[in-house]
Amino acid sequence: MVVPGSCYPGVAAGMAALQIFYNLSTGLWNTTEWWHAANAMETTIDYSTLTDTITYRGNIFNTFEKHKGSNFLNRWFYDDEGWWALTWIKAYDLTGETRYLDMAKTIFNDMKGGWDSTCGDSIWWKKERKYKNAITNELFLSVAARLHLRSPGDKGPGSYLDWAKREWNWFKNTGLINSSHLINDGLNSSCQNNGHTTRALSSAVWLICTKARMTPPCSPRRRRSPMPLFARSLPMGFCESSANPTVEMMVHSSKVSSSAICTTFTKPQTNRHTKISSPRTQTQFGCTATAPISLD
After folding, report:
1. CATH top-level class of 2-294
2. Do residues 146 and 100 touch, judged by C-beta distance below 8 A?
3. Residues 202-227: pLDDT tens digits?
4. Which residues share a beta bridge with 55?
5. What are the structural domain ranges in the chain?
6. Does residue 146 have a pLDDT over 90?
7. Euclidean distance between CA atoms 123 and 116, whole angstroms
8. Which one, of 25, 68, 27, lies nearest residue 44 by Cα?
């Protein structure tokens, strides 16, 4: 789904409102928690990418410099780290600066420390290791898959692809996807679906199919707008899009192998990089998609 160009002024106004909360001294957004700040930064990156503007690009540099010493790690939560890893992958896609990709890899390496065999191979929500939930493992898989796409030659045991496959193997067999085809919050002490809240956040990150279509990003230095993916024209599968639940993702849960619609928006058609003729058009802006990759 493509938001019409007529919505562009509203999007710009929304970004300006978000900027009001940005604190140059801390490199974060006032009133936000750590993971919320990651979502706000991701939104800033999305805006910069989709509008091809530099208005808020300084925030990316500022936040990175303010907090790079901590590697954007969290003392308590692995899912918070996942949000920051996804954010810095997007910063790399936008700028082509490898330090952002390296940071995402550093974060992922810390997340791997939460992996063990309790309730099957997967990672814990908190570092105190008392609860395994959906969102943390969804983020782990999303980060692993995206790092694989940006790491030439990545294959074999211990590769990002290997981690993604192992995570998917766990997730599809946990029962977290319930009879209504929604994702419950996590597992109980018996390693069963705890029946807790089906959070939109968990469903919006992604729903992966048995065959996952993993689409590589454009060359960072050439990228102006992301490739829009449409469920009606592509196989159901892994959507290389934002994990930010406030933008880009709508999930239609018709069955476990659910289709996803990634939304984007275009500026008025003066931008030669956003020539989208209809919702059924797959425009790749010079990218080459890989063949579907099985996660089974």
Report:
1. mainly alpha
2. no
3. 554 644 333 333 445 544 443 433 33
4. none
5. 2-294
6. yes
7. 6
8. 27
Which has more confidence, 202 or 91?
91
Burial of 244: CB neighbours in 10 Å, binned 0-12, 13-18, 19+: buried
pLDDT 10s digits, 230-239: 222 222 233 3
Other C-beta atoms lying within 10 Å of the C-beta of residue 26: 13
Q: Report the greatest alpha carbon distance in the chain.
A: 57
Report the alpha-carbon distance of residue 217 to residue 226 in Å, rounded.
Answer: 8
Contact 132, 124 (CB under 8 A): yes
Structure tokens at 236: 């159901």
The Cα 162–Cα 150 span in angstroms is 14
* CA–CA separation, 56 and 29 (whole Å): 13
Q: Give the amino acid at 158.
A: G
Do 202 and 135 touch, CB atoms closer than 8 A? yes
Burial class (CB in 10 A: 0-12, 13-18, 19+), 269: exposed
